[in-house]
Design a protein that fits this description.
It contains eleven helices and ten strands. With about 300 residues, it is an alpha/beta fold. It folds into two domains: about 90 residues, no CATH class; about 150 residues, Rossmann fold, CATH 3.40.50. Strands 2-1-10-3 form a four-stranded parallel β-sheet, covered by helices on one side. Helix 7 links the parallel strand 4 and strand 5. Helix 5 packs across helix 7. The chain starts with 6 loop residues before the first helix and ends in a 5-residue tail after the last strand. The relative contact order is 0.20.
Length: about 300
């Protein structure tokens, strides 16, 4: 179910505005004013906050019935954009990115590496690769999130064997949890490579990739970097930046490194700000989508 910083809701609302579709978002928890929520409203998405009890009901067979009755003619998008249709859509990414790789001089590669939330994108890449290259998924959440079962089900629905991929536990302390080592990795990645990372998916995935490369188990891989800075601006201000301030105080400085204010994920640390409601866009035409999305 989509939270107040959901990438999927953000993308769906923008797609609805672009293509003239009405969109409805079902959100986890109680009303919050975050930059992402403001963007959803600006795109004309209707929001419904389900609380946490309602969120836990999302897998029940009767969950969608009242929403389909309330919004007849809408298409229900599964959690995280999941389901077989979502996986088949992601399968097309393999061919689409072949040409850009050639521009970098990559005639071939040994595999694909990506962060895995629901497992839908990973299943799509497995379908798109069709056995040509293995796909490696860095799990953003713990094993009880059942990504392996989801991927196996999607491949079965597509008529494929449950092969061609491997999952790695990259969740560290759990989904959305951070630790000082991850903070150090993110800071080093930005300083040395100029690459801002977000802590929930991409930082953990790349940190796990580094461990595998150091262990000589992987060589030339194609990394799927799906971080959208706008989607994490509220998350950073309200949760991530305060954690970094505490954690960086415990991380020893490298030789020659000066103490003082440090930048986090490409932005200077600062106190969280709350913006007032923005003026909503006029709603588009009647047909549309209901999004039951997760934070990835």
């Amino acid at each position: 179910m989509g939270g107040p910083h959901s990438n999927h809701l953000h993308a769906l609302a923008a797609a609805g505005r672009r293509f003239g579709l009405r969109t409805v978002g079902l959100l986890r928890g109680h009303p919050q004013d975050t930059p992402t929520v403001q963007d959803l409203l600006d795109c004309g998405m209707a929001l419904h906050w389900l609380g946490y009890g309602g969120y836990r009901e999302r897998y029940q067979p009767e969950f969608w019935a009242p929403w389909q009755a309330r919004y007849p003619g809408f298409h229900c998008v599964p959690e995280g954009g999941g389901g077989l249709l979502g996986a088949l859509g992601c399968a097309e990414l393999v061919a689409e990115l072949r040409q850009p790789l050639e521009a970098f001089g990559w005639g071939d590669y040994h595999g694909c590496w990506l962060a895995a939330g629901t497992g839908t994108t990973l299943a799509g890449l497995v379908l798109g690769e069709a056995g040509r290259h293995p796909v490696y998924g860095a799990l953003a959440g713990p094993g009880e999130h059942a990504v392996a079962a989801t991927v196996a089900t999607l491949l079965q629905q597509a008529g494929r064997d449950d092969t061609g991929y491997r999952l790695f536990d990259a969740s560290r302390r759990g989904f959305g949890r951070f630790d000082p080592e991850l903070v150090r990795f993110m800071r080093d990645a930005e300083r040395e490579g100029g690459m801002p990372l977000e802590p929930v998916y991409t930082a953990k995935a790349l940190m796990a990739l580094r461990e595998q490369v150091r262990a000589a188990s992987l060589r030339l891989v194609r990394v799927w970097y799906s971080f959208i800075p706008e989607d994490c601006k509220g998350y950073e201000a309200q949760i991530w930046t305060p954690f970094c301030k505490r954690s960086l105080a415990r991380v020893p400085l490298k030789p020659g490194e000066r103490s003082g204010p440090r930048r986090v994920a490409g932005r200077a640390s600062q106190a969280p700000t709350v913006t007032g409601p923005r003026r909503r866009q006029p709603p588009p035409p009647a047909t549309g989508l209901i999004a039951n999305a997760s934070v990835r």
